[in-house]
Amino acid sequence: MKILMVFDFDHTVVDENCDIWVIKCLPTQTLPDSVESTYRRGQWTEYMGRVMAYIGDQGVAPDRVRSIMETIPFTPGMPELLTFVSENKSTVDCIIVSDANTMFIEWVLQGVGLREAVDQVYSNPASISESGCMELRPHHSHQCAKCPVNMCKKKVLETYLSEKADGGEVYGRVLYVGDGGNDLCPALCLSERDAVMPRKGYTLDKMLTRLRDEEGKGSISAKVIPWSSGAEILQELRDMNLKKPLSEEVLFSHEEDGRGGPQPREKTSSVHVVALNPNLHSEMIQICLIQHRLRKAIKASKCSKLYPRRLRKQALMVPRWLSYDPHD
Ligand SMILES: [Mg+2]
Ligand SMILES: [Zn+2]
Questions:
Q1: Could you state, in chain order, the average pLDDT of each consecutive group of 10 residues for the chain (328 residues)?
Q2: Measured in angstroms, how far is the CA atom of residue 50 from the centroid of ligand 1?
Q3: Active-site annotation holds for 93
Q4: Which of 9, 44, 49, 210 has the smallest number of CB atoms closer than 10 Å to its CB?
Q5: In the chain, what percentage of residues exceed pLDDT 90?
Q6: In the chain, what are the helix, strand and coil shares in percent, each to the nearest 5?
Q7: Keyword Glycoprotein: yes or no (predicted)?
Q8: How far is the CA of 38 from the centre of ligand 2 (A)?
Q9: What residue spans in the chain does CATH classification 3.40.50.1000 cover?
Q10: CATH architecture of 3-241
């Protein structure tokens, strides 16, 4: 099963805030009060729309903005980490979930040749208008009271995981790397198999510490692994990536092949059956196991336990009780 890396962008992948860095493209390198004073709490993206309009009005061309964005410094160790991710695409998927904008992120990653490390960028959509100005739109609307109006990262992550599960991809582990207050909401939806990796000394790190002090260890299911450099995350990822399962594993997606049986997804070790389709019977799983000469590995009694009817699509991760080691 693959690992999913989820990255915040500002102060995580890069060591600055894109929306602040972009001001460097102005001849004065500052914003006038008439623009700066229009910021309203919780409405940063709308404010940035006005900043970008002002930059356009000053005659700064998008190419100039791009060349400034390409000079933003990366957080130490991040280029090496993303290089490792791009070299291990068969075992690691990677997405960016950021409240910056799609265009800045694309420019920064392309500038260092690391765009291919990232499968998807989820951010506020940006485009260049006919008049040459950058225009920003909110990423989505949501019901979460804790997040800024334009983006709830938890909603982004849950939608991504659910769509991937529909396509048969279930991640063994999710690693969420971030620094900010808006990274707490998604961190709280992670399971105990996952890890949230807050940047040491930054807001998310402090919030998680406070949460644990006030509500105890049970307040967050995921393992908390603070980091100061991408090298520490790389070490963590290497360790996880290299951990080979003990014996033979077959994963079944909910999709059926022409013969009416569930399709094996990939072979590694220990038997995991992912039952995402409520109409799939345990008998069918048994038949499939026979087809794959694994019948002896799994007892009928275990098989019937493998598929409770209450299991629905939200079972995105393989629960431990669904895994069975033939050598047990
Ligand atoms: Mg951030
Ligand atoms: Zn939220």
A1: 96 97 96 95 90 94 96 98 96 96 97 97 94 90 92 97 92 96 96 95 97 87 97 94 45 42 41 39 42 37 37 31 37
A2: 21
A3: no
A4: 210
A5: 64
A6: 40, 20, 40
A7: no
A8: 25
A9: 3-241
A10: 3-Layer(aba) Sandwich (3.40)
